[in-house]
Amino acid sequence: MADSTSESNFFKNFLIPNYILVPGSEVDSTPNVPKCPVLVFINSKSGGQLGGELFVTYHTLLTENQVFDLGKEAPDKILRKIYFNFEKLKFDGDESATKIQERMRLVVAGGDGTAGWLLGVVSDLKLSHPPPIATMPLGTGNNLPFAFGWGKKNPGTDEVSVTSFLHDVMKAKEMKMDSWHILMRMRAPKEGSCDPIAPLELPHSLHAFHRVSETDKLDIEGCHTFRGGFWNYFSMGMDAQVSYAFHSERKLHPEKFKNQLVNQTTYAKLGCTQGWFSASLFHPSSRNIAQLAKVKIMKRYGQWQDLDVPPSIRSIVCLNLPSFSGGLNPWGTPNSKKLRDRDLTPPYVDDGLLEVVGFRDAWHGLVLLAPKGHGTRLAQAHRIRFEFQKGAADHTFMRIDGEPWKQPLPVDDDTVVVEISHLRQVDMLATHGCRSKSVYDPSSPSHHDTEEDDSNEEDYQQGEEFRKFGAADTFRIPDEVDISHLS
After folding, report:
1. pTM of the full predicted structure?
2. Which of 65, 84, 287, 437 to pair with 329, CA 20 to 30 A apart?
3. What are the entry keywords (predicted)?
């Protein structure tokens, strides 16, 4: 009986009064102000059956109005409703509502795509007191949770596992994380399909500009302009090709991809069949990064410079987090000589810099398994631009936070441009085992003086739409899309 009472008291730390969650319901004059109020968002289709089982457990332990199935409700609608109610209650002098809002934390359970969706919504909505977010791993890669100490294995879904996770949520520290805006523009074809890429083939975070705002300055007549954002990485080349093959296979045979270990084994097999381990034999040099694109970087505002990419590089990765391909760290930690001679730093997640790394093939990637292994460090930059000219290849493969697509390349004298720039920051929750480092953390390795954030130095001219992910009201996942692909 004592254990039952103790457990009941523990969950009171997370319970939110109903009048906060359901606008218009009777206001509690003496509400309990929980120590760690949480809203829980779960992709019920992630992790095979685990997402559905996890939803049931959370629904049982917390109130039904603070646990949401992302397959049925979009997070922007939920957060808009609750935060609008917060503002109304605070205006009416409800001090408890103010304290609950200040203590609010979010939990999102799913793959990196699901987590990125919620992060983008929170970023776009610009809430008055944006809550920090804990990510619960339910996908294949789980790079986001791993980077902040939440692990990379699918968690248990029983009451004991959820209780343990909520203990960690209550004790977790807050930490800033950069986000990145991606802009992609290509000339509209004179013949054939209007859309160069089928809308449903694109990652959920990348979408056509004209569907957002036809008057936006970045929407140029005669061009297809896409934009979106990412938190973990953007990659291009052979690694994205293997990922595309995996996702294509999963779309055709979803019943075969219900188990995390099976998924990872299938991924490894596809790496072999796609020629990633024998790239010198099966991968034409015309598809090497240096032959595909001219790459420019911006280390300081207004100063673009060419990036010298070795001709053997077949894959390039722009990293925000020290976690890629299931937890590997391609950047590593540069030694003091490289810090001094090449102006490189450790991979901080809140310094406004992307780490740009290249790989020759999968064998080169295996060096990451060594204690100090890393890829070919190419640069760190506030911005990076890829300019694709007409060449031998008619397409390449790209990937944002685990979601790949097949990208058409110019067939005449036009150019396809992909530009990545710093967007803003969001608050994350990190455990004691967090692998990510903050530039403001006294325990982090020292480096050169941090420049002031220059992310607004140019975009002040571009209009408010440029400063959004488009994850909330500017972009909705179509009803016909199975959100299991976000896992």
Report:
1. 0.81
2. 287
3. ATP-binding, Kinase, Nucleotide-binding, Plant defense, Stress response, Transferase
